[in-house]
Amino acid sequence: MPIAESSNLEANPASVDTVNRQLNTVFELDRADRWTVYRRLTDLGVVCECKCDRSLKAAIHTPAEALQVWSVVQSITRPKYLLIDHLERCWQQRSPR
User: Mind listing the pLDDT tens digit for each residue in 64-84?
Assistant: First the structure.
């Protein structure tokens, strides 16, 4: 659930402060990438916040969340040829010799 849409948080300022402290990772992305990453992270259940003309903030508490955030940011910001090269190297390492 996006933080900006949560009426429960707006009614309780202490909850807003708690959530803001949990948003411990800030990403500087261009506007289009920022919203794409935000939508994907919220789909994955990662708590994040993205306001107009602001940075994207995400709460990362587990290694799985860290990997999800890294993967989403990489898939949006890296050139496709680098992603393909990385995937090919992963497949080569996994294939039996």
Answer: 999 999 999 999 989 999 999
